[in-house]
Amino acid sequence: MSTGKIKQISIAGSPVGIIGLDHILEIIHSENPPSEDNLKQRLLDGVKKGNYVPTSLEKAYKKALFREYRRFLGESVDEEAEGLTIRVLGPGCPNCDKLFRDIQAVLVELNVRADLIHVTDTTEIAGHGVVPLPGLVINRKLVSSGRVPVKEKLREWIRDASPK
Questions:
Q1: Could you tell me the pTM of the whole model?
Q2: Using one digit for the tens of pLDDT, what is the confidence trace for 30-50?
Q3: Whole-angstrom distance, CA of residue 65 vs CA of residue 153
Q4: Sign of CA dihedral 14, 43, 140, 126
């Protein structure tokens, strides 16, 4: 499996793009693996068919892939275990770009590590239900749309969402 949409997930606190993950999740769900260990191994094996997985990170991949599988099933997932995830939603307009730069500056200022991505894919943006852009999603929660918040508000949101 070397084709398919790339989905970015957090593995050991770092963003990693996985080719064909949604397809892998659908296939494995239809197979209904008998145990959690078996499920984790099947997820890893499926991902390794079209993606490079360093041997030293296989355990972290299994954990992250299992988390994504649970999310795929609609189950509750402990967001804090993932670390801080921030998504700027928008097509790359001046306001979207300013919001992205402001967040980068606040992260550096606060010395906070985060998985920060500027999402420009219209389908993914629509999945967040954002109409006025730019949108800002922190740990999968929409916190702002249609404006560029002041840096003090960004600092507050990032401090509140950062793992303690």
A1: 0.60
A2: 987 678 889 999 999 999 999
A3: 33
A4: positive
